[in-house]
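Before drawing any conclusions, I looked closely at one protein, both as residues and as discrete backbone shape codes, quoted below without any editing:
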Amino acid sequence: MDATPPPDDDALMRAYARGDVAAFEALYARHRGALYRFVRRLLGAAAATQADEVFQDTWLRVIQARERWAPQGASFRTWLFTLAHHRAVDCLR
């Protein structure tokens, strides 16, 4: 039996850019837990109430960037976590 490996993040993002909503759902399912924990750690206890907002805004930015997204040496995960980091820093200011 030939088991096909799941598509990588870049392939999923390219599919999502072409309109494949299931590709976005796969990306979200793959990264939601780690991203939420990352955001919570960045914000700490003082700003924990804003973790949901930063988390959701990060995914909104992914949605908004889908048509112009292109890998530029960094993985999708690195790009996603960078978006979250920038948003968290903005929130802490």
In short: The chain has four helices and no strands. The CA atoms of residues 6 and 12 lie 10 Å apart.
